[in-house]
Amino acid sequence: QVQLVESGGGLVQAGGSLRLSCAASGRAFRSNTMGWFRQAPGNEREFVAAIRWSVGTPFYAYYADSVKGRFTISRDNVKNTVYLQMNSLKPEDTAVYYCAVGAFGGDYSAVRTYDYWGQGTQVTVSS
């Protein structure tokens, strides 16, 4: 089993920044995909960013078009933590943000790729 705990959400004005963290505990992985998704009221959960890692290889990062150039995903394997740095935030970024972990392969943007999910953290961007 894997436990994921997100933190760092909050209320920010448009144009501001937030950094989300997701701490993983439990089963150890030699390779995996860690991703961030978000869900606004009345909407389906949507892909935001993902980072893939395997022992001995560099990280691979992927982004949704809507956040490319504004958000940066990174990970610290020593701390088993993945981060989402969010800059130039817009009101349309308002949502509950979820961290997830899944297998190295598969569609990194699909919910079905991920086996474990955190409880979510609220991000609200005011105009």
List the helices and strands and how they pair.
Elements: E1 2-7, E2 10-13, E3 18-26, E4 31-39, E5 46-54, E6 60-63, E7 71-76, E8 81-86, E9 95-102, E10 114-117, E11 121-126
Parallel strand pairs: 2-11
Antiparallel strand pairs: 1-3, 3-8, 4-5, 4-9, 5-6, 7-8, 9-10, 9-11
Any overview of this molecule?
The protein is mainly β. It is built from no helices and eleven strands.
How would you summarize what this structure contains?
The N and C termini lie far apart (40 Å).
Mean pLDDT: 93
**Structural classification:** mainly beta
Portion of residues in beta strands equals over 45%
Shape: globular
- Cα end-to-end separation: 40 Å
> Residue ranges: pLDDT <50 for 5 or more in a row?
none
As a whole number of angstroms, the C-alpha radius of gyration is 14 Å
Tell me the number of helical segments per DSSP (H or I, 4 or more residues long): 0
Largest sheet: 7 strands, mixed
Give the SSE order as H and E letters.
Answer: EEEEEEEEEEE
Level of helix content?
Answer: under 10%
How many strands appear in the DSSP assignment? Answer: 11
What characteristics describe this protein?
4-stranded antiparallel sheet; single chain; mainly beta; 11 strands; 127 residues; 7-stranded mixed sheet
